[in-house]
Design brief:
With 516 residues, the chain is of the alpha+beta class. It has one domain: Penicillin V Acylase, Chain A (4-Layer Sandwich), CATH 3.60.60. 27% of the residues lie in helices and 23% in strands. It has 12 helices and 23 strands. A 6-stranded antiparallel sheet has the order 12-1-2-18-19-20. A 6-stranded antiparallel sheet has the order 7-8-9-10-11-14, with helices on one face. Helix 11 packs antiparallel against helix 12. The longest helix has 29 residues. The N terminus is likely disordered.
Length: 516
């Protein structure tokens, strides 16, 4: 393919520096209860952000991939012995496939594991999304240190829970038992759900956590910030907390709450210096533009089960909605500049209906930059395989300071060591794998990175094409419902989603090729 030259290489390089410096801590999740949605589904979604141009694959992990008695060894020291043959489930992971000789980009290992598996739904209807990274205050982190040797890392949570558990409550209990026994290597916010209930869990230190059973009338966003506010721990039907949650905060000198009433303000106690980041401000505006503040207080976005009189009430958030939400609103959320970014690796959105059926969960899949991608629908419990363009293992993108003579590339910067051994920033070019057009991830990655040099008219044309492709996907969802009611529903739904993804992929490649 002919090279695409930037109109302003310096401007693009600066933008990429800013993007890459922030993307490793820029995942953004959203939750909207079934009482607030147009079709009565519970909706939650998350963007997985690590860095720019870093291949991600989407696939089905087959039943029995892990056998009873097998010891799972991830990247970071955590091990788990499976108690049963694993369920099948949809999943995303980093690329440790054949093109890179099964070498994990995270740890360099070639042993059988799934690096940075992020989210999915298993054959029993359990859905998990993890890796929404959360930090904590310094004092409380010292009082309850993380276990960097054998604790569970957030990216290993979906692998274990989706393999082992049939229900949301079973998965919650398993995860909390792991926190209680070996702790964690990193703080995170996690959604665990099935057709009967949805849970949100935060842990920001080694062993302490709060798990909340969510109700239909709450909505909130999690942009790498704790959102659990004042919680009465006596609400044992809807709250599960670690035994020393208050004790650890008191030891750190950060406890906020009423110990006699068994309450704790989790954000104030475990993240005492937290202020709303720009993505939280964007979320508030997306939820309710008229009520949004430019400098919101914690109480404007946290969730609580305590009213002004100190009574236990159903969980609520002050992040109110100014409309009934639809899947279009979830998709639109990841089109917000700063939430959709070149640091996005993939975005997954789930709709879960209360009916107990093999179609009660819908998984919407988008690769790379939310502003340049298209969400494709799948019925995960009826999906036996995913579209080939989602699964392709490729060589990684490479960086060169010399402008390439051929291939697809964009202006970028990188940190390298100079002759003195010092790490310095240099300008150059990121070169995509030769077979980029065969991969959904790399195709969107190409489009999003090249877009920095385009005119407004070109961007408008791209947006129009993407809107057309997204409408195709909404139409495909209606067709999926019909296919699921017919004969050989699994084969029909698997093919329909794959065909839809193929059409989206072809449209994106066409856009990239049109930029020659």
């Amino acid at each position: 393919m002919t090279s695409i030259k930037s109109k302003s290489l310096i401007a693009i390089a600066i933008a990429l520096i800013l993007c890459m410096s922030s993307s490793a801590f820029a995942c953004t999740a959203i939750y909207v209860g079934s009482g607030l949605t147009a079709d009565g589904s519970t909706m939650f979604a998350r963007s997985e952000d690590i860095s720019n141009s870093y291949n991600k694959v989407f696939y089905v992990s087959p039943a029995g991939n892990h056998k009873a008695g097998d010891v799972y060894q991830g990247c970071y020291g955590f091990t788990y012995t499976f108690t049963k043959d694993s369920y099948s489930y949809t999943a995303f992971s980093d690329d440790n496939g054949a093109a890179v000789e099964n070498e994990c980009p995270d740890c360099g290992g070639t042993h059988k594991h799934t690096p940075y598996e992020a989210a999915g739904t298993n054959e029993m209807g359990l859905t998990v999304t993890a890796t929404e990274t959360l930090g904590s205050g310094k004092a409380v982190a010292e009082a309850d240190p993380k276990n960097y040797e054998t604790g569970i890392e957030e990216a290993e949570i979906p692998t274990v829970l989706l393999s082992e558990c049939a229900t949301a409550k079973e998965a919650v209990d398993l995860l909390l038992s792991i926190y209680d026994t070996v702790g964690c290597q990193g703080g995170s916010g996690i959604f665990i759900a099935d057709n009967t209930e949805a849970w949100y869990i935060e842990n920001t230190t080694g062993t302490q956590y709060v798990a909340l059973k969510l109700n239909p009338n709450v909505a909130f966003a999690v942009p790498n910030q704790s959102v659990i506010g004042l919680i009465d721990l006596d609400d044992t039907e809807n709250v599960i907390a670690s035994a020393k949650l208050i004790e650890v905060a008191k030891q750190a000198g950060t406890y906020v709450g009423d110990e006699a009433a068994n309450t704790i303000d989790y954000v104030a106690s475990y993240n005492p210096d937290q202020v709303a980041n720009s993505r939280m401000v964007s979320a508030l505006k997306h939820f309710n533009a008229a009520a949004a503040k430019e400098e919101p207080a914690n109480s404007d976005y946290t969730v609580s089960n305590v009213d002004a009189e100190g009574n236990i009430v159903p969980l609520y958030s002050n992040m109110t909605l100014d409309r009934t939400f639809s899947i279009e609103d979830i998709v639109g959320y990841y089109n917000i500049d700063g939430i959709g970014s070149t640091g996005n690796l993939e975005i997954h959105a789930f709709q879960i209906f209360a009916e107990d059926s093999i179609t009660d969960t819908v998984e919407w899949v988008a690769m790379d930059h939310g502003c340049y991608s298209v969400f494709v629908p799948y019925y995960p419990m009826l999906t036996t395989d995913t579209y080939e363009g989602y699964k392709l293992s490729t060589l990684p993108a490479t960086f060169t300071q010399e402008q390439p003579a051929e291939g697809l590339y964009y202006a970028a910067s990188a940190r390298i060591r100079n002759e003195k051994g010092e790490r310095v920033s240099v300008e150059g070019f990121k070169v995509l794998p030769e077979n980029w057009a065969d991969s959904m991830y790399w195709s969107v990655d190409a489009l999003s990175n090249l877009a920095a040099s385009l005119t407004e008219d070109q961007i408008t044309a791209i947006e129009a094409k993407q809107a057309e492709l997204q409408t195709l996907c909404y139409d495909a969802y209606a067709q999926l419902q019909t296919a699921a009611a017919g004969e050989d529903a699994a084969a029909a739904c698997t093919k329909l989603s794959a065909d839809t993804a193929a059409a989206v992929h072809a449209g994106i490649v066409e856009l990239v090729n049109g930029l020659k």
